[in-house]
Write a structure and sequence with these properties.
Length: 423
């Protein structure tokens, strides 16, 4: 039996999922799961890339023990984060996107290229952690001196397996450095910021073979996890989607990037898809819920948390996309500061969080329909958040759309779909 292996790594965990075709359907089995998360070092938030690599290799070993005939494998992760290289070795640390090191770099970049110009060229929404600001922070800190290259995290991990360095298109578009029209790195932006030109190679599309690991072919999927997630959604009709995890990625497929002033004002992004553009927006997502849980009721089952939120009658909401919620020392304190009436119970906090997310979805959908000139009657939700029936109900009520919740491993399925398509 021919099988395929998807290695899907998120900000809080990673998983190895094996798939095969049986009676016209794709069957899957999770063979390995491992924890992930940022660590703090010298006042900065970093990723332990050595631990990630060890887990990747361990999971492949276990997958192969259970399924010897693996036709190919691929890796996807979140976007924007990368590993600088000096020759074949990483330049450490590997900073995490929630680290605050870009704060000085943002104004410096915009003094050279105003954001409106960056948006016109790339169509990428403003986020303080976008790779363009991370790379400029590296430049200011001297970390680019002697750097011979960089690889986005999934391509770095595949390089460690194969020895082949590749820049995959969908993940590269999250950097804010890929031209929306040409689909290649924008040399004028790179020259204006005086970033080393040799760092930016040719982009490869999903489906491109990149080498092999112990006899297993390694293929590029859509290595940005949202790119794979959108590929994995079994849509009956073209409609907006939310990939609901640490972040909520809300968007829709379009034929071409939309980089007009209204899209810039709404902070919509245009990221690479597999033969289409993903017109989407980052919304804070389950990050705020998970952080509240860590502070208020560590380890409490989410079923009990949702039940408490349902029972609460708390009525206030917050702006879920306010930067105050990005990486606060205390998520509870961030909520308290944003609310007129302090919540009295855990259920109050979680009801506020879920209702705030649903409201942010409503606002984003209104902007999406206005900017694309289309209206939709349904909304697909995939990822971990799709399992939350209460949030789905709130979202349906807030947006007026029929919510189609698919609690499936959409990212892994999209990863696998690309491998099977290019076998």
């Amino acid at each position: 039996m021919q099988t395929y292996l998807a290695i899907d790594i998120g900000a809080s965990s990673g998983r190895h999922i094996v798939a095969w075709e049986e009676n016209g359907a794709v069957r899957t089995e999770e063979v390995y799961r491992f924890p992930n998360g940022v660590t703090e070092s010298d006042g900065h938030l970093i990723w332990d890339i050595d631990a990630l690599e060890r887990h990747v290799r361990e999971g492949i070993l276990l997958a192969r023990a259970a399924y010897p005939e693996i036709a190919s494998l691929s890796i996807d992760t979140w976007g924007v984060d990368y590993v600088l290289l000096r020759g074949d070795e990483p330049i450490l640390p590997c900073y995490a996107y929630r680290d605050r090191r870009t704060e000085a770099a943002i104004d410096a970049v915009h003094a050279i290229l105003p954001f409106s110009e960056l948006y016109r060229r790339t169509g990428i929404q403003f986020q303080p952690f976008t790779s363009i600001y991370q790379l400029y922070a590296d430049k200011l800190a001297g970390r680019l001196d002697g750097a011979t290259g960089f690889l986005m995290l999934p391509c770095y991990l595949m390089y460690r397996l194969t020895g082949v360095k590749a820049h995959e298109y969908t993940n590269a578009t999250t950097m804010g450095l890929v031209n929306a029209e040409t689909g290649e790195f924008d040399t004028e932006i790179i020259e204006a910021l005086q970033l080393p030109k040799h760092l930016f190679g040719k982009l490869s599309m999903p489906g491109t073979p990149v080498g092999s690991y112990e006899g297993i072919p390694v293929v590029l999927c859509a290595t940005h996890d949202t790119g794979s997630a959108v590929e994995g959604i079994p849509m009956e009709v073209d409609a907006p989607y939310i990939s609901s995890g640490t972040w909520s990625l809300l968007g829709v497929k379009t034929e071409r990037p939309i980089t007009d002033a209204a899209s810039e004002a709404a902070n919509y992004s245009n990221e690479g898809g597999v033969g289409y553009n993903r017109y989407q927006k980052n919304i804070m997502g389950m990050w705020i819920v998970n952080r509240l849980r860590d502070e208020l009721c560590p380890g409490k089952p989410f079923g009990e948390i949702v039940a408490a939120a349902r029972e609460s009658s708390y009525s206030e909401t917050v702006d879920a996309n306010d930067p105050a919620f990005l990486a606060p020392q205390s998520m509870r304190a961030a909520f308290d500061a944003a609310l007129c009436e302090r919540p009295k119970s855990c259920g109050d906090y979680f009801r506020c969080a879920y209702r705030s997310l649903a409201e942010s979805y409503r606002q984003a959908l209104c902007e999406l329909e206005q900017n694309t000139g289309r209206t939709y009657d349904r909304l697909y939700i995939v990822g971990g958040g799709a399992k939350n029936g209460f949030l789905n109900e709130l979202t349906e009520r807030a947006t007026g759309k029929r919510v189609v919740a698919l609690p499936i491993e959409a990212t892994a399925l999209g990863n696998l779909k690309m491998q099977m398509r290019h076998r």
